Amino acid sequence: MLRLAMISLFLFSSAKSMAAISSSELELDQKPIFSKHKPLALAKKEDASAFSDVPITYNREVQKWVKYFQGRGRTWFKTWLERSNRHKALIHGKLSEAGLPKDLIYLAMIESGFSFRAVSHASAVGPWQFIAPTAKQYGLEINHWKDERRDFNKSTDAAIKYLKRLYKEFGNWYLVGAAYNTGEGRVRRQIKRYKTNSFWVLSRKRAFVEETKNYIPKFIAALLIAKAPHLYGFDNLNPHYEIPTDQVLVPPGTDLKEIARHLKVTLRAMKEMNPELLHARIPNNVSPQVIRVPKGAANKVSQFTAQMYP
Q1: How many of the other CB atoms lie within 10 Å of CB of 229?
Q2: Any idea which architecture 23-232 has in CATH?
Q3: How high is the pLDDT of residue 200?
Q4: Beta strands in 61-131 (DSSP E)
Q5: Could you tell me the fold of the domain covering 245-308?
Q6: Tell me: the pLDDT tens digits for 42-94?
Q7: What 8-state DSSP symbol labels residue 2?
Q8: Is the model's pTM score more than 0.90?
């Protein structure tokens, strides 16, 4: 059996509401251990904090997901890696500005594979997989023609607010991930029931459903591979590149098909730039809306819409 290896110091909340944990559990989740089972990505690194700004535990649960992504899940993971290149700068920038670990980006990877079209069995939507009530709680607009859960900018801002709130309560990124997946109320109840703040202890005690038990191992596996893909056999990637855009205010009734035709770009490209729009046409009964257009085309679009929709 693989030994649990915690490579980076794990911070726990001092809030009185959190249950006390034993010294053995502290060692399980906190103590840095360098074992023969160190993952490939860290094989030549003495300081794991130089590799990742979140704690890394490498155990058999994590190893299982590494092998899965290298095997049966390889095609999906390759696509996720290629998509990540388009959104990395945006998400890293926002996380860094908020004072959060930049490697939390890999939560979005395992949530949606960086697809704005992703919809879960629980009707969670977008790159950060918000259900509607939580999305609205964090300021995202959802209606019959717009769903801001699909917008990378706005949904990342909402995810950051949510993650910061969870960390303020739990003080532990593994429990934050579990709460993001299953809900903070459930995590809170299980901490109280089992009197431990250790994600791994709670997992062994079957405090979480299977999806949540796998969530953190899956996250760590994705992080390890994504930060050193060549070490895990992911070569010859075809990265998706960021689409440079400008923003422009357009009037009600604006049709993306007309703009695409005027700019000689595809409607698909316009939809990729404006993923929050559920339809090509902005309704007549709304206020002017900001949309994204190809870099350098804002003035052209502004003049065109002024003529088309006076």
Answers
A1: 17
A2: Orthogonal Bundle (1.10)
A3: 95
A4: none
A5: Membrane-bound Lytic Murein Transglycosylase D; Chain A (3.10.350)
A6: 766 656 667 899 989 888 999 999 999 999 999 999 999 999 999 999 999 99
A7: P
A8: no
